[in-house]
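Exercise 7 asks you to align residues with tokens for two separate proteins.
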Amino acid sequence: MIIEELKQIFSTFLAEVNLFLSKNFNEGLPIAEEIMTLILAGITLFLLLICLSGWFWQRSRSQKKKTLDKLSGREKEKRLEQLKKERDKELELRIKEEEKLRAEKESVQLVKAEQLEKGLQEQIVSMEEEHRSQQVLERDLKKTAETVESAEDADSFLVRLRKGVDKTRTQLLNNLSDAVLGKKEISEELLDDLEEVLIGSDIGPETTQRILEAITEKVERKELTNPQVLQTEIQREIQHIMSKTYSVPGTADRKPLILLFVGVNGVGKTTTIGKIAAQYRQQGKKVLMGAGDTFRAAAIEQLVEWSKRADCDITQKDAGSDPSAVMYETVKKGLDEDYDVVICDTAGRLHTKKNLMEELKKMVRVIRKLIPDAPHEVLLVLDATTGQNAIFQTREFMEAADLTGLIITKLDGSSKGGVVIGIVNEFDVPVRYIGVGEQVEDLRPFDAQQFTESLFA
């Protein structure tokens, strides 16, 4: 009975499916019973495969879960330890990257700090130089006005010169006396001692060698045997070195006479310019100054004060202006307004600063656009207290400008006056002036014989 009912249900279901498939896939024609059986078998197989796949997936997932659950405590610890190591390694890499970035930032900050410190140091040095220059100016402005040089003044200057080189003379003569003391003959040992004495007096190695060679020749010819006359021989050789003569340009054949002053900071350049301007004014010359040191406002102010004191005119611009423009305007005014002497100041510059030395060359070119053979004098101001460094400065400035003369200041405050001898010997550039004090009359034209005599007087 039940089997019959199932057959009936299956037949009815098969008829419905046949009707559905024939309408949708067979243009309304009934499908053969054998084909329908195959179709139903295929559908049944497909559904069976889907069920089996779902069951297999669910079973695999369950097995994995069971496997994880079955892991021993030690295996779990190993797994956790491995994960921890991986996290620690990643953290360490991040820390290293952060430290590297921090180090780079600190390096950049350090460079900026060093640059800032360098700038501050340069400002401090500049302020100290301005302060020293101002002190010198204040002392100079307290002095009385200069009078025209007389024979009495010349004698007075000789006294001041001897007093000014007293430290140099004392050191030189005392050391010479010690070297020859108790010596009965001129030996190699004595000549070595003399070499130390001369070099110690800042005469310089080249000039010392020249003096010793002359003495050695006389010793070899038996013309010189007594150690006690060595001082006289050294004086004679120094006089020979200092006997160079040079022509000095004047206002008679050049009008205006263009003087260009150069030198490093702190040598007394601006003060020297003021003193020389005052001396020309005492001679009745019409003098014009050019404030070419536009890097320091204090330098311009100092030169303005000197122009008032010396009763001469001045061309100036604001601090920071182009110094070559100041040179051009100064020389042009000197030509147009019939000045006798034009004195041009320049910025104090280190002889090792190539860019500033190039600027000096530019100023010379600008002056020569107006007067082809100018400047007629390029005067380098040197500080005697710097000793052998004055010779190094002379070499460097000779490369940047055609030096025609040297001015050596502060001989009164130094035991290194022997450097004057070395400079005269090594360079074919005359010493034009020497300074042995702060007053205007303490800066005088250089007399080689007078200077040598004052060293041994």
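Second protein for Exercise 7:
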Amino acid sequence: MSKRERILSMAVGSLLLLFVVQWGINKYRAAVRTRTNLITQLREENAEQQQTLLEGAYAENQMDEYIARSLPSNRERAQSDYQSWLLEMLGSVSVSDPRVNPTTVTPSGDLYNRFSYSVDGGTDLPSLVGLLHSFYSKDYLHGISKMTINPARDRSGMLDVKMSIDVLALSAAPSDTKPVASHSWRTEPDVSVYLDPILNRNFYEPPNQAPVFDGRKTIEAIVGKSSTTPLTFKDPEGHRLRYELISKSDQKGTLEQVIGQSTVKLDPRTGTVSIRSNEKREFNLLVRAVDDGYPSRVSEQTLTVRIVDPPPPPKPVEKFKFDDAKQTVLTALVQGRQNWTAWLNIRTRGETLKLAVGDTFDIGSLKGSVVEVTPKYVVLESDGKRFELTPAGILAEAAKTAKSIPQAQMDPSIKPSDEEGVAEETEIEEATSEEGAILDEEAVIINQTVAESR
């Protein structure tokens, strides 16, 4: 065999070996899968059988319970025993003229017999609640299939009640079984648990809520005077409230209490408390608010009453004085023949002051004099301070920028050379033609008009 043939034969043998190994692995996996499925199936069957056993045990226990609650399997005895119990139960809850009549007996194969009864009588609403409680507290296999309630025609507050009742007697129950003695776990032993939610139930709106106190818990009254304070209770439904004072001795509601030398009165409609006391003291007051909802709800609150001295008389309030300086505006700077003048318009008075250098003014909170008037501003002095006021400026606002005057400026010494300069300027101004002065004055008035319009 040549080398090539040996290599070919080895390759073919390797492929055959791989095929055999793959087949073995697949065979093993199939066997494991089959075993796993079988185990899962057996477990499910076991669980189903366990569930069946549990259901059977539950059904057996349930059947034992039903047998214990069943009437005797003997028809005559079952019918007689249950009718006697109905009459006894109706008498215990004060039903007037009770009537219990057997109507039909309906068998259901060999499982049970259903006995039907017709019951009627007269009662009031609390007794009707007691009747239903007594009926369902007895742990028979019974129920009310139909009940009709109508107001009694000849008795106020009474009701005519008619009921159709069904009860079962299991065929597996003993024929001489004794009446059920145990109380049903489905109802509360005490009937009062059901009386309040049933008798006080409002069918036309949500359950009524009690009023809520929403005021101060401390009341102050002035000694020797009658003081009034309104109580602040709020009702969630907006019902009308009635107020009472509660006596500590008997908890009864009153409208007036005397505590020492203090007399307390309460308006039942408005809830206004009136207190008069001749001595300074402190005591507690218990009040009650009752709404007119259905059923009526009550809320109580303890208040602390303090009898105190009258407050000191109030200090006289100074009348507000309007500051004219805040409404005074520099409307114009006018040049005349001799000098410049500042026109201050006091808007609150409808008055215009025309002030030249040296003139004084008294406007609102500001008093002072005019120090200098230029074509662009006026310098005013007030309380030893100077400030500038420009056209359209407000006097009070400009005064806030006032600065103290240096000592040297308060007593200025005028030198002769200064006087000569002033004289020369005066001669130049006097030499000005009358026509030029008129033109200048008109220009300044135009500036004044523009400033006032602003």
